[in-house]
Amino acid sequence: GPIVVWLRNDLRLDDNPALALAAETDRPVIPLVVLDEESDGIRPLGGAHKWWLHHSLEAFAHSLRGKGSELTLRRGKSANEVVDVVKQTGATALFFNRRYDEASRAIDDEVEAQLGEDVSVERFTANLLHDPEAVETTSGGYYKVYTPFWRKISEPGPRDPMDAPNGLKQPSNFPKSDELADWNLLPTKPDWSGGFDAMWTPGEKAAQKRFKTFCDDLLEDYHNGRERPFADETSRMSPHLRWGEISPYRLWHTARTYADRRKTIPDEAIKTFLQELVWRDFNYHLLFHFGALAEKNFNDRFDGFSWRSSKSELKAWQKGATGYPIVDAGMRQLWETGWMHNRVRMIVGSFLTRDLLIDWREGERWFWDTLVDGDIASNTAQWQWIGGAGADAQPFFRIFNPITQSQRFDKGGDYIRRFVPELKDMPDKHIHAPWEAGDDVLEKAGVKLGETYPKPMVDHGKARERALSAYDEVKG
Ligand code: FAD
């Protein structure tokens, strides 16, 4: 009988074990995507996610057509929809690639249980370099610290990627499918997606093309380039990985091969890149072993911490109106393009949780709604870390100074000028802290603090002292 291949965060043909191994059987294959926002524990997609998913599904359906197949779309509870498609098509097998968060694992188990013994269910490892339960410390536990995790898995490295299937055999009938347009995933009123269109092309082909450009031109200096927020010098693979349009195995081996062949790529560049990829795996490792990562402090010392709550301050941060140019530039980049440079994510995260003492969960939720790469493991783990509640040996002292960070990483102010145009005529020297400039400088640049651009909402020095004394509550 036919095989239903249930695709989730793996919208690709290349290195897709569930799809490739189904194709190899020579049985008819039915590729299925279910939009499930109803099952228990599932986090509804954010607005930016939906925009990406729409385009990604369009691209994926197109690639499947090129292989002689058709994508079936269903919306509803996975347990209902997957079981329905299996029954309708008389499929005798269900293949899928593993997911790792608690809610998704529970759904996958439920689907398997509902299908009963006549349908064989096969699960594959596709989206992480290592299954989380396969990596153990010497005492048999899981890793809570990154460096030993990296040491454990970096040699000999992950398996080789698999090729895309040559073709997919059709069933006698494809099941009934929704129309993608009826899912209404794209924003209409207002349509905020112009900046997204300008920056991104979702889909597998675009991911491969961008990664080739990265390896050809940027990998060589990646270890330095990744610290320049204004420059386009990182891989920008994060949304493609989020939706599984490209495989981490493919990225690992392609980058390695480039580094082996091109002597101009220093060890430090390739090592830094592979380490970043492994951070993603590490965050999933934490999520798998600590299921409540999105809600509960990983470091339970923070359970008794009293976060401040201020709707208006949260809003000022979200809208990029804090009066700290680097923070505002980051928040506006996020709003405009659905993405933010890693260095700036840390700066804005520290500002929210330390300068404003607002709960990291608020930041996590905002990112989840606005990032195209908003990821169930990386977003939560990184927010925990920046807020002090995560896996960090120094939770109480990591307070970023938004002025010195800005001077160091956006020296010429290009990033600020791009996203905070009302400061574009400020001289380099004063663009990082306009309130410290003299009236004549401000006037010349056409800036009126409190009118054309906000005054700083807190004094960083005082906010830092406030945070340090607040931590006394929980330091113990
Ligand atoms: P590159 O520098 O080219 O790195 C290559 C890949 O390595 C990335 O695509 C990503 O998959 C992985 N990677 C790099 N840095 C990290 C990291 N610190 N943690 C985990 N994986 C990493 N990344 C997400 O993918 N989704 C998120 O929701 C997310 N939320 C974040 C929230 C905060 C507060 C912070 C500080 C970081 C967050 N990150 C998140 C990590 C990081 O900022 C992005 O992965 C990175 O900026 C993506 O750009 P890139 O693909 O060009 O990265």
From TrEMBL:
Keywords, ordered alphabetically: Chromophore, FAD, Flavoprotein, Lyase
Domain of life: Bacteria
Domain Photolyase/cryptochrome alpha/beta: 1-129
Reaction(s) this enzyme catalyzes, per UniProt: cyclobutadipyrimidine (in DNA) = 2 pyrimidine residues (in DNA)
Name of the top EC class for this enzyme: lyase
Binding-site positions, FAD: 222, 234-238, 273, 373-375
Cofactor note text: Binds 1 FAD per subunit.
Site (Electron transfer via tryptophanyl radical): 307, 360, 383
Matches recorded under InterPro entries: Crypto/Photolyase_FAD-like_sf, Crypto/Photolyase_N_sf, Cryptochr/Photolyase_FAD-bd, Cryptochrome/DNA_photolyase_1, DNA_photolyase_1_CS_C, DNA_photolyase_N, Rossmann-like_a/b/a_fold
Stored SUPFAM superfamilies: Cryptochrome/photolyase FAD-binding domain, Cryptochrome/photolyase, N-terminal domain
CC cofactor: (6R)-5,10-methylene-5,6,7,8-tetrahydrofolate; FAD
EC number(s) stated in the UniProt entry for this protein: 4.1.99.3
GO biological process, one term: response to light stimulus
Matching PROSITE patterns: DNA_PHOTOLYASES_1_1 (PS00394), PHR_CRY_ALPHA_BETA (PS51645)
UniProt GO MF annotations: deoxyribodipyrimidine photo-lyase activity; DNA binding; FAD binding
Keyword Glycosyltransferase attached: no
Family according to the record: Belongs to the DNA photolyase family.
PANTHER family, A to Z: CRYPTOCHROME (PTHR11455), CRYPTOCHROME CIRCADIAN CLOCK 5 ISOFORM X1 (PTHR11455:SF9)
Protein name per its UniProtKB record: Deoxyribodipyrimidine photo-lyase
Organism listed in the record: Fulvimarina endophytica
